[in-house]
Amino acid sequence: MIVVVLGALAIALPGNSGSSSPLSACSSLRSSAIVAAMGGLPQSIQGQVKRMVPDLAPAGAKFQRGDVIEQAGLPTRRFVGAVEGRYSWVVTYEHSQGSVHHFHAITFGRAAASDYAPVPHGVLTGPLCQIADAALSGALSADHL
Asked: Model pTM?
């Protein structure tokens, strides 16, 4: 029983190379559409993320954690997942600076007849579920204006 519980917890931990996104562990996002790979995002958002975060590894891939170079040439950031809102997407990625590992969220909003664009409040940093909630809440409140 303990082994099963530990196995289930490992799926939800950031950095796991499983097929589900660590965002699926966020209880507030359980009814949201979670995308675990960049390829599941609209093309326009994929292009913007690549321009904004050019050194981004795919979800589950190796990346450079911290300042100690373990393997030359690894990306310094890694895609974690994305959540779709009514007229928005929240894209999350992880990265380490020194010994501090943290998550970032970029919110992309959409006007009714136009393409997605980054929301002006910028990139949020903090605990994964909290930044996803904050970014999605902000984007959704803007949807109702």
From this structure: 0.71
